[in-house]
Design a protein that fits this description.
By secondary structure, the protein is mainly α. The chain is built from 10 helices and 2 strands, in the order ααβααβαααααα. It is 50% helix and 1% strand.
């Protein structure tokens, strides 16, 4: 009996592994096709990035209501903001992964590939089924899953166990570092702030960890400020501090097939490769 059980588990694990590999190959191949299509397609018009018939069209977002103490929120401002506007359930609970997929696509204009892959990755991280299970926003804050040390908008879990709380001092330091035209953040700004934040976190957090994966994940989070928000400090201040979508706002990504991994990775690597792990690196 135990032999048949062992064999079943072994082959089940092998099947799951190759199924996951095959799925990823499909997703990233699809993503590259969308990237190429974006190169030749007409951009969406300013003011019409959010498509007619979708929530937020014309910059008119549902009412913002701050979360109550019983609402579920996460370490991710983008997901929290959608719940605060009722685009996701306001209590932040029992959200299907497919519902999250559609909301991210409509609000932020990420590509269908990104909007599928990221919630599916979350489901796998939590050992849940993408098609059948649901998630509470707080579930995303599991340490060293998607949440990580040296965030630009959250104190480390070592100092602040409740990762739903924005770190206003860190956000103000970030926004005050903008050197781009018309009060905008640049990739270099994010590299400098990220390097400083990593050094400070390493010194103050005796449990500090930051793997290569989480370094890239952190740079991907910060890169949304350049892509989806165009680096605009005025919009980011509202979004990051209040976790509210600014009045009249729309995604700065005008590509009809959304922000693909292929395009996004260019910004991510630009930010990450510019990060100095010590002060001497920052000053060179």
């Amino acid at each position: 009996m135990w032999i048949s059980t062992a064999i079943s588990r072994i082959f089940g694990g092998i099947g799951s592994f190759f199924g996951g590999v095959g799925s990823n190959i499909y997703v990233f191949s699809w993503d590259f096709v969308l990237f190429l299509l974006n190169l030749v397609a007409f951009k969406r018009k300013v003011g019409e990035v959010t498509l007619k018939g979708n929530v937020g069209y014309g910059g008119k977002w549902p009412e913002f209501i701050p979360p109550t103490d019983t609402d579920s929120r996460s370490a991710c401002p983008a997901l929290n903001a959608m719940a605060n506007h009722g685009i996701l359930p306001r209590n932040g609970r029992n959200i299907s992964y497919k519902e999250m997929n559609a909301a991210i696509r409509n609000v932020y204009n990420f590509s269908p590939t990104f909007c599928y892959f990221v919630p599916k990755y979350m489901a796998g991280l939590l050992t849940r089924d993408y098609k059948r299970d649901t998630i509470n926003l707080a579930d995303i804050s599991v340490h060293n899953g998607i949440e990580h040390d040296a965030s630009l908008t959250r104190h480390d879990v070592f100092h602040q166990p409740d990762q739903s709380r924005p770190a206003i001092d860190l956000i103000e330091d970030l926004l005050a570092s903008a050197t781009g035209p018309n009060n905008t953040l640049t990739a270099h700004d994010l590299s400098v702030v990220s390097g400083r934040r990593r050094r400070e976190a390493r010194e103050s957090n005796s449990s500090f960890t930051l793997s290569a994966f989480h370094k890239l994940f952190g740079s991907s989070n910060s890169s949304t400020m350049l892509t989806i928000f165009g680096g605009r400090v005025d919009d980011l201040e509202v979004f990051l501090k209040e976790e509210r979508i600014p009045d009249g706002w729309e995604s700065r990504v005008r590509d009809p097939f959304g922000l693909t991994f292929a395009a996004f990775n260019c910004t991510i690597f630009h930010v990450e490769l510019g990060i100095g792990e010590n002060e001497q690196d920052e000053n060179t």
